[in-house]
Design a protein that fits this description.
This protein is of the alpha/beta class. Helices cover 27% and strands 27% of the residues. It has helices at residues 43-49, 96-99, 140-143, 146-159, 174-185, 198-206, 218-226, 241-244, 271-276, 289-301, 319-328, and strands at 5-13, 16-23, 32-41, 60-61, 65-72, 83-86, 89-90, 110-111, 123-126, 131-133, 166-170, 190-194, 210-211, 231-236, 251-259, 280-283, 311-315, 334-338. Strands 3, 5, 6, 9, 10, 17 and 18 form a 7-stranded mixed β-sheet that branches. Strands 13-12-11-14-15-16 form a 6-stranded parallel β-sheet. Helix 4 (146-159) crosses helix 5 and helix 4 (146-159) packs across helix 10 (289-301). The chain is globular, with a radius of gyration of 20 Å. It starts with a strand and ends in an 8-residue tail after the last strand.
Length: 346
């Protein structure tokens, strides 16, 4: 007998998420139906929850950092039973960026979980082209990190970082730590990370990264590593005005400054220093399909040792507590929500 309803967490109003029964997704011709395993909560989800996201409208099933299994295969793409992660981007296919093959910076870019139903549910309907097969030996819990890891892969690729470079990273949240790990794997000689949270500093240190001490600064920590020249590449994963104010000062002549975190409003940066030091400032928006493929490979090969990346799993029925944990920024770097029975952490 075909099930006609499923459990889902629906955002219905600012700071209100209801766990309820909703109709199972209608699956358009050619699309796939995916049974959700895990879904990560990120800053975008928190902005939706608080009612501050400019595009999200209630009621909405959030969630775009997802792993799961193909329940019903699409006309193309992975067969039923395949473990997949999702490249949740929705592009128009018509604008200049799309015509140039840069669909990730589409003028009308949307995301599943923001502009269409996402993965905080038991099932989600998706076009097969956004599904990426994951090797069967990969833990679905770890696989759910593929989407944020693809952001880090994209950032490091755009940075032009070379083996032997000294890298500075601001912010030891999920994206900052993943960016630091990808940079180190790409051959950075030194990766220095700055973070105000003592707990997150301990996490970064435990992962083998050089952490700016609470009584020091990024510039002071970089000085002995670079003969006072500054970092070759600086990643801003914090998106805080205090970081924008100092990134030029900690980056060398002709160094690269990569803005990974999304600022909520226009923010001052020392463009005089950019000119005098001939620095390059690069923006990052999500990732390409190739970045997602690369992220899956990094997970499958285990080279980043992501089993040590602190996650915490909440049951879908406990989604309110999951959002509270994600907002606190303590005890784990990534909060995951699962509809699977018995898979939540105690």
């Amino acid at each position: 007998m075909t099930t006609t309803t499923m459990t889902a967490a629906r955002w219905t109003a600012p700071d209100t998420v209801d766990v309820t029964q909703v109709p199972t997704p209608e699956v358009p011709d050619g699309w796939a139906l995916v049974r959700v395993a895990y879904n990560g909560i990120c800053g975008t989800d928190l902005s939706i929850l608080h009612g501050s996201h400019p595009r999200a409208t209630a009621p909405l099933i959030m969630g775009h950092e997802m792993s799961g299994w193909v329940e019903r295969a699409g006309a193309t793409g992975p067969p039923a039973g395949t473990l997949v992660v999702v490249e949740p981007l929705i592009s128009c296919g018509e604008c200049r960026a799309c015509r140039d093959g840069l669909t990730h910076v589409c003028r009308r870019l949307g995301l599943y979980g923001i502009d269409a139903p996402g993965a905080m549910a038991q099932l989600v309907a998706l076009p097969p082209e956004v599904l990426h097969a994951v090797p069967v030996e990969v833990d679905p819990r770890t696989a759910s990190l593929a989407e944020p890891l693809a952001v880090a892969v994209h950032a490091v690729d755009l940075s032009g970082m070379r083996a032997g470079d000294t890298v500075a990273v601001y912010g030891a949240g999920p994206i900052g730590v993943l960016t630091a790990l990808v940079a180190r794997h790409a051959g950075a000689a030194h990766v220095v990370i700055s973070e105000p949270s003592a707990w997150r500093r301990d996490v970064a240190s435990g992962l083998g990264l050089t952490v700016v001490a609470p009584d020091s600064t990024m510039a002071q920590t970089l000085a002995p590593l670079t003969d006072g020249e500054g970092a070759d590449v600086t990643f801003d994963s914090a998106a805080h005005p205090s970081v924008a104010a100092e990134v030029t000062a900690v980056t060398r002549v002709r160094g690269r400054i990569v803005v990974v975190g999304v600022y909520k409003q226009p923010t001052p940066i020392d463009l005089q220093a950019v000119c005098f030091l001939e620095q390059t400032v690069v923006g990052v928006r999500v990732y390409t399909s190739a970045d997602m493929t690369r992220a899956i490979d990094l997970i499958a090969t285990g080279v980043l040792d992501l089993e040590r990346f602190p996650t915490r799993v909440f049951a879908l029925d406990d989604v309110a507590a999951a959002f509270d944990a994600a907002a606190s920024g303590q005890d784990c770097l990534k909060v995951l929500v699962t509809p699977l029975t018995g898979e939540a952490d105690s």
